[in-house]
Amino acid sequence: MILPIFFIFSLIFASSSAAAQDFCVGDLSRSYGPAGYSCKSPSKVTVNDFVFSGLGKAGNTSNIFKASVTPAFAAQFPGVNGLGLSMARMDLAVGGVVPMHSHPGGSKLLLVVQGSILAGFISSNNAVYYKTLYKGDTMVFPLGLLHFQINLGETAAVAFATFSSPSPGLQITSLSLFGNNLLTELVAKTTFVGKAEVERLKSVLGGTNSGVFV
Question: Which cysteine pairs are joined by S-S bonds (predicted)?
Fold first, then answer.
């Protein structure tokens, strides 16, 4: 009786051990796919794959947005590959803005650690939720919804974001609309923004007027 029981437990242990995988450090030399990066060979994994030091340094806010976002996603931090989480640092100079954008691959939890940030999002039924956040405040932004952050304070602001994905993705609405090469007439028709304003926004955000109607 003891031998059959021992044999059964041996099979269970063997199958569970075979199925278990502690981590899947991303192999950045290979292409990113729907399931993330392929796993690096365990023999090539080092402790440095599980450490990222880039969030301790302020980003460069000398740009049109007066803002900087430093990601610690799978592409920068291969140890989070396959673990369902990642982080980023946000620096906002006075008057800085992270314009309306979305993360199609993950929800975001924002923690303000310096200054104050006006943050909000728009639900799929166009309800708006926004509030000024101060040091120690957190706000959650559900997956895929348009949201923004603005520094309306008198000092620089810093926040850290945690995502529910190692690669949450990013689409900035204004850049998607006016930083492209669609015909100005086409952008104007689909956005109900006047042609002259579309041309102005394209010039500011790097868009061109190339392309043809098909």
Answer: 24-39
Give the H or E element holding residue 174. Answer: helix 173-178
142 and 191 both lie in a single domain: no
Under 8 Å between Cβ of 179 and 152? no
Our count of domains for the chain comes to 2
pLDDT tens-place string over residues 51-107: 999 999 999 999 999 999 999 999 999 999 999 999 999 999 999 999 999 999 999
Is 47 annotated as a binding-site member? Answer: no
Report the SS3 class of residue 56: helix
- Average the pLDDT over each of 35-44, 79-88, 106-115, 158-167 and give the range with the smallest value: 35-44
Give the pTM. Answer: 0.85
Whether residue 84 is annotated as binding a ligand: the answer is no
- Per the annotation, does 50 bind a ligand? no
Q: Is residue 134 part of a domain?
A: yes
**CA 43-45-50 angle, 5° bins:** 160
